[in-house]
Amino acid sequence: MKWAGQKRCSPNKHLELNRKWVHDLTAAGFDVKCACIDTPQDKGPDEIFRVNTWFIEDCTFFVCILKDYGKDCGMETGFARALKKVMIGVDYNLNKDDVMIYRAFTVILKPDELLPYLNA
Fold first, then answer.
1. What is the mean pLDDT of each run of 10 residues along the chain (120 residues)?
2. Which residues pair with 88 in a beta bridge?
3. Exposed, middle or buried, 27 (CB in 10 Å: 0-12/13-18/19+)?
4. Which of 9, 31, 94, 115 has its CA 20 to 30 A from that of 2?
5. How far, rounded to the nearest angstrom, does the alpha carbon of residue 90 sit from its chain's CA centroid?
6. Residue 13: its pLDDT value, please?
7. What angle do CA 1, 17, 13 make, to 5 degrees?
8. Domains of the chain
């Protein structure tokens, strides 16, 4: 597996969907950090920002669930892009007219393509 043992960050607001992906990626042998699961949500906004940006700084590659995304996704995507991370978008309802999000990713995959891609 080309990505085995590497760190990754997967931000998004869809908690149950993120739990599914964290479970599936962890079961496949990946070390996953997810902003909505692993960030202490009882901390103030400065601490949440610090932890979430550290996840992106520390990851080997960045996986983003593209479903009903908003400004946090835009910031995190831009930050990962600025850090020159390998960026994988998981397309649930990506709008190709959202040029800055759509063009930022190294690759955009449908949900059923992610694990086969990572295991290739």
1. 50 75 92 86 84 93 89 91 96 92 95 93
2. 63, 107
3. exposed
4. 94
5. 8
6. 56
7. 115
8. 7-119 (3.40.50.450)
Q: Considering only CA atoms, which of 37, 6, 5 is closest in space to residue 21?
A: 37
CB 68, CB 50: distance < 8 Å: no
For residue 69, which amino acid is it? Y
**Residues 64 and 10: beta-carbon distance below 8 Å:** yes
- Write the single-letter amino acid at 85: K
Please list the residues that pair with 65 across neighbouring strands: 90
Q: How distant, in Å, are the alpha carbons of 25, 28, 104, 110, 114 from that of 119? A: 10, 8, 23, 15, 9
Helix or strand run (H / E) with residue 66: strand 61-66
- What tokens does 84 get? 């020159």
Copy the structure tokens of residue 78. Answer: 């831009």
Pairing of strands 61-66, 31-33: unpaired
